[in-house]
Specification:
The chain is an alpha/beta fold. It has three domains: 113-183 and 192-249, no CATH class; 252-331, no CATH class; 333-426, no CATH class. The chain is built from 13 helices and ten strands. A hairpin with an 8-residue loop joins strand 3 (142-147) and strand 4 (156-169). Residues 77-92 have a biased composition (Low complexity).
Length: 426
């Protein structure tokens, strides 16, 4: 009975000590006071070191300190005046109210060019049409960007064009040929359409997508930039519609990226929580030297199987999530292995501490050797570490069935470590 109580006490203590630095837990699961304690320990350790501190590390610690000390959950002044901090319920529907004066976009920019879209040949008899007989019946305004990289001062310039559409009478067969803006048919799963009858041109749409997904600007900030720097007034709803239409326009590229991804020699995969409209989803990211592909959905194996499937022939670098284990050519992320080894070093079990120390020392030594080899001429480090790796194989096999204590049962798969080391060193 005493032995069982001792093991239970050790297990509870190990679980309480586990954090993002000693396990695969995400940093958000750490207690609020853990960041301050870790920073104090790091500052004391760095003060006694002979080498100067890394400036990047200082920036990371400063950013982390600001994040941890930032007040959360504070009510805005408007919310503070209400009972219980609740926001006031809207008394009317959003948008234009019945009987209110309408609002339209004023055309204040000068027209740079008038583009006539005239039919070139008769759709009935194929006879060439005379452009002089074109009669305009409609048009639109287009705001777009122009780039001239060959100019002395390359940059962006706004242009305001006016495309015209109309009819031409065919003198051969009498058919009236009409030109119209191009439109794509509706597709299942998409609530936005694709049409040339659009105020925003393709280059300006690309800039809006860059602001949203690359610069991470909100719709309001994007609207502010366009107004202040380019003199263009666009509503946030128009900006949002352009971004969604761009997503539908580039959807065919997704299949091409998946095909190329399946032929890559090494692919890094990871997943993280992602909220959309209050619903908890997961963001799956697959990265290679030339491809970055992501999907948003549930945390299930179906997404990974739909992307990689049976056609994936390369190595998959991932964490210990069980979904990835169906792939035979799988590598474990060394950052996760180092954290697990760090957790073993802090174990109450003497045997687990020794195993964690050996794992941590070997991985660090391999990483240093790999970085040094990358700076010089190509060299195969496998013969140099062959004996160390074989000894570590025996150590892993010795602890393979150690499942009574959580520290000893940490999932450290030697073939994955060996494969990662062999690929990195070759």
């Amino acid at each position: 009975m005493l032995v069982k109580l001792l093991w239970d006490l050790k297990e509870a203590r190990e679980r309480l000590k586990a954090n993002s630095q000693t396990s695969s837990r995400p940093p958000r699961s750490d207690p609020p006071w853990h960041g301050a304690v870790s920073r104090e320990a790091d500052s004391e350790a760095s003060g006694n070191a002979d080498n100067p501190e890394d400036p990047d590390a200082d920036e990371d610690r400063a950013a982390s300190a600001v994040k941890n000390t930032e007040p959360k959950g504070l009510a805005t002044p408007a919310e503070a005046d209400l009972p219980g901090g609740a926001a006031a319920a809207p008394t009317k529907k959003a948008g234009r109210q019945p009987g209110a004066a309408g609002h339209s976009r004023p055309v204040t920019l000068p027209i740079n060019d008038t583009v006539i879209h005239a039919p070139e040949s008769c759709v009935r008899c194929g006879e060439a049409l005379d452009a002089a007989g074109f009669v305009a019946h409609g048009g639109r305004y287009v705001l777009d960007l122009e780039t001239n990289l060959n100019a002395e001062l390359p940059g962006l310039r706004m242009c305001h064009d006016k495309p015209l559409y109309g009819e031409i009478f065919c003198g051969q067969c009498g058919h009236v040929n009409r030109s119209e803006p191009g439109r794509c048919q509706a597709e299942p799963g998409w609530s936005v359409g694709l049409s040339e009858w659009h105020l925003v041109g393709p280059m300006l749409v690309s800039l809006l997508v860059c602001f949203s997904h690359r610069m991470h600007l909100s719709r309001r900030r994007t609207q502010e930039f366009l107004r202040d720097w380019l003199g263009v007034a666009l509503s946030t709803s128009t900006i949002n519609q352009c971004i969604h239409e761009a997503g539908r326009a580039v959807e065919p590229i997704e299949e091409q990226l998946v095909e190329e991804l399946q032929q890559e020699a090494l692919t890094h995969a990871d997943e993280t929580p992602w909220k959309e409209w209050g619903q908890l989803l997961w963001l799956w990211v697959l990265v290679t030297p030339t491809i970055c592909l992501y999907f948003i959905g549930y945390r299930s194996k179906e997404i990974l199987e739909n992307v990689l499937g049976e056609g994936f022939v390369g190595w998959l670098m991932s964490d210990g999530y069980p979904v990835y284990r169906r792939f035979q050519k799988r590598l474990r992320c060394w950052a996760h292995l180092l954290r697990k080894a760090e957790g073993l070093k802090e174990s109450l079990s003497t045997e687990a501490r020794a195993f964690g120390q050996a794992t941590h020392d070997l991985l660090n030594e391999l990483m240093i050797a790999i970085y040094e080899a990358r700076e010089g001429p190509p060299v195969d480090l496998t013969p140099r570490f062959h004996e160390r790796l074989e000894s570590f194989r025996e150590l892993c096999e010795k602890h393979q069935d150690c499942k009574r204590s959580p520290p000893c049962s940490v999932n450290v798969n030697f073939p994955e470590i060996y494969a990662a080391a062999k690929i990195s060193m070759s």
